[in-house]
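In the design runs reported in the main text, the only information available to the sequence generator was the tokenized backbone. The following block is the verbatim input for one such run; it is reproduced so that readers can re-run the procedure and compare outputs position by position.
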């Protein structure tokens, strides 16, 4: 093997020759003393990237980050607005259902005009066992509680009938209903709504 400095110089000449003559990569006009079992790979020199390209790429990256943040914030605000609107729609829907319920019950029995009842739905009969007011209750029955009038009404929407009517007692517990001289606690369901 020869002197490493000579090998490097010959390599550089070969590289320059191939760069200057790209149409003939197999040209043998350059000195070729590199056949010592080494594979020579010609590499084109990379021109340095102009500064303005880096500025443009940085500006694009910054714009992409800002756009992503603004997009995420707008989607978050849209979700909050949608949730707020859904809760208002649900409250309106419940108010309309309660109004329709009061109209149906009012067609069967005279209701107090001076107050709005607390309305609950029977959703778990096991919790109401042993309470005489709920002895004939079924799932989906509605309970209307008039605190001022001291009256509780168990209404069945499926048959449009009053199932039970009982006065409220003054025991200090607003959920206490008196029926046939027996006190029992009213367990409001999960769908309790005030109108």
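Verbatim output:
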């Amino acid at each position: 093997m020869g002197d490493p400095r000579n090998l490097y110089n010959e390599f550089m000449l070969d590289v320059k020759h191939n760069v200057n003559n790209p149409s003939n990569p197999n040209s043998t006009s350059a000195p070729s003393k590199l056949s010592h079992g080494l594979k020579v790979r010609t590499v084109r020199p990379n021109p340095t990237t102009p500064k303005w390209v880096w500025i443009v790429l940085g500006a694009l990256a910054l714009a992409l980050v800002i756009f992503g943040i603004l997009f995420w914030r707008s989607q978050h605000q849209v979700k909050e607005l949608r949730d707020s609107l859904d809760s208002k729609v649900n409250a309106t829907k419940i108010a309309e259902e309660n109004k329709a319920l009061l109209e149906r019950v009012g067609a069967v029995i005279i209701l107090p005009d001076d107050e709005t009842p607390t309305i609950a739905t029977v959703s778990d009969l096991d919790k109401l066992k042993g309470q005489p007011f709920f002895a004939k209750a079924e799932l989906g029955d509605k309970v209307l509680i008039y605190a001022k009038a001291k009256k509780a009404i168990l209404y069945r929407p499926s048959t449009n009938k009053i199932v039970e009517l009982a006065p409220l007692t003054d025991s200090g517990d607003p959920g206490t209903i008196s029926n046939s001289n027996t006190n029992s606690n009213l367990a409001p369901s999960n769908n309790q709504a005030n109108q």
